[in-house]
Amino acid sequence: MDVAVVVNLKARKGSESVGRMVRDLLPRARVSVTRSMDDVRNFILKEIAPRPPALLLSGGGDGTAVALLNELREMDVAIPTIGVLPLGTGNGWARVTGAPRAREAVTRIAGLRGLPPPTRRFGLVEVDGQVAPFAGTGWDAEIVSDFKAQMSELPMTQQLEAGLFGYMKGLFTRTIPRHVFGNGPANVVLTNLGEDAMTVDENGRAIPLRGGERGAVLYRGPASVAAAATTMEWGFGFRAFPFAHLVPGRLSTRVYGASVVEATRNMFKLWRGEHPMPKMHDFFLTAGRMEFDRVVPFQCGGDVQEPRRSFDFRIASDTVDLVDWRRLS
Fold first, then answer.
1. CA-to-CA dists, residue 231 to 91, 133, 162, angstroms
2. Which helix (H) or strand (E) holds 86?
3. Does pLDDT of 329 surpass 90?
4. pLDDT band at 289 (very low <50, low <70, confident <90, very high)
């Protein structure tokens, strides 16, 4: 089995030593230790595009895997099976697929002795021609932005120790106070742009949504979170989209309309993905549009992008097969 590996040095646990470890355990693999997107593009152009591997190991967080996916699509290179090594901060995709520590993961791949690994297929959200496992606005985008701003103020030794603590610190010292003393959540209009919408009943079953035809306004009101996803987690075990895999070929689209005080009171229930939750609105869509009454932060696959007042999203025509680490044990 032909294997290529990208290790992102900017990921929280990315390092030259990880690259050396990979080369030791997979001596025939094509390995690139990258410092920038230019490094990634050059590796794809020179090594992957001429001879696509059967397996591409992505050493980083969700952002690294998403960047690889989009660069492959941009260069019209067939997307191989991707194995996510948990070297990032949130590691949503890595957690969902049961990835162990990087050394253990690479050891398991070496133990296959050329056989293909077991996989799980994931759909993708597409926004502005880019794909990701989740995209949207609200506290998730703000927390990522606040976390990165906080990290930029820390010395490197403390940045390496950030992790979940850093996210929670950003949440309680920046995100929550801004909402408590600010203007509250933005208002959103969610419009269905695709097939007739579905929703979920109180027992967690997918059902048709009455009045959810193409062009229908599905929700109008406050939105502390407004996002779409094809995977259950944002990272750190936060099950933000517990119904992401309930309806194949559909995006799990959620709008949460509670205030920051109510959300903080229910934080652990939200973290576990409990259902039903007051003021949580679930839809299963093939395409939609979210329009806000003011400019809001926006993130795609864990990477903060330019703030915006609206965005269109749809289920991508591409899918991706990820290594199912739980079955590769």
1. 12, 6, 24
2. strand 81-86
3. no
4. very high
* Alpha-carbon torsion (151, 153, 159, 161), positive or negative: negative
Closest CA relative to residue 57, chosen from 20, 93, 106: 106
d(CA 163, CA 180): 25
Angstrom distance (rounded) from CA 178 to CA 21: 43
| pTM assigned to the model | 0.89
Domain-by-domain residue ranges, the chain?
Answer: 3-117, 132-315
> pLDDT tens-digit profile of 86-116?
998 879 999 999 999 999 999 999 999 999 9
Closest to 216 in 3D by CA, of 195, 200, 192, 197: 192
The SS3 assignment for 267 reads helix
Angstrom distance (rounded) from CA 92 to CA 63: 10
pLDDT tens per residue across span 231-257: 999 877 889 999 999 999 999 999 999
Is there a contact between 252 and 275 (Cβ–Cβ < 8 Å)? Answer: no
Say if CB 90 and CB 38 are below 8 A apart: no
DSSP string, 175-207: IHHHHHSS--PEEEEEEE-SSPPEEE-TTS-EE
| Assigned CATH topology for domain 132-315 | Tumour Suppressor Smad4 (2.60.200)
Rounded distance between C-alpha atoms, residue 37 and residue 71, angstroms = 9
Query: How far is residue 120's CA from residue 328's CA, in Å, rounded to a whole number?
Result: 12
Domain 3-117 sits in CATH at 3.40.50.10330
The alpha carbon torsion through 317, 38, 86, 243 (nearest 10 deg) reads -20
Query: For residues 192 and 89, is the Cβ–Cβ distance under 8 A?
Result: no
Six token digits for residue 169: 């610190």
pLDDT band, residue 149 (cuts 50/70/90): low
Total Cβ atoms within 10 A of residue 303: 19
If one counts every other C-beta atom within 10 angstroms of the C-beta of residue 38, the result is 9
Rounded CA gap, 323 and 307, in Å? 33
Residue 216 phi/psi, 5° resolution?
A: -75, 145
